[in-house]
Amino acid sequence: MTMDKQVASNTAKHQVNQAEMSELEHHQLTTFIDALHDLYYALQRKGLLPDGVTPPESS
Fold first, then answer.
1. Could you report the per-residue pLDDT of 3-59, keeping only the tens digit for each?
2. What is the four-CA torsion angle of 6, 7, 9, 13, rounded to 10 degrees?
3. 3-class state of residue 32 by DSSP
4. CA-to-CA distance for 14 and 17, rounded, in angstroms?
5. Phi-psi region for residue 41, left (φ > 0), alpha (ψ -120 to 50) or beta?
6. H or E element: which one contains 10?
7. pTM, rounded to two decimals
């Protein structure tokens, strides 16, 4: 395999891996944000929010 073909092959593999990772990272981030929202509302219900804490933006 020539160097150009090897580079092209590695680049294509990297792009596929990046797309898969991005999907996983998006899911993890969404799950984390949902957990933060749940925590905020639980603390709000119990009256335990410090002064100046604002509600999270809806996702």
1. 777 777 777 777 777 777 788 888 999 999 999 999 999 999 999 988 888 877 755
2. 130
3. helix
4. 5
5. alpha
6. helix 3-46
7. 0.54
Report how far apart, in Å, the C-alpha atoms of 24 and of each of 2, 17, 18, 36, 57 are.
33, 11, 10, 18, 22
- Structure tokens that stand for 15 in this block: 């792009």
What residue has token string 């580079």? Answer: 7
Q: Which of 15, 45, 27, 25 is nearest to 55 (CA)?
A: 45
What pLDDT score does 15 carry? Answer: 74
Q: Which position has the higher pLDDT, 1 or 47?
A: 47
Cβ atoms 25, 44 nearer than 8 A? no
What separation in angstroms does the CA of 6 have from each of 1, 43, 55? 6, 54, 51
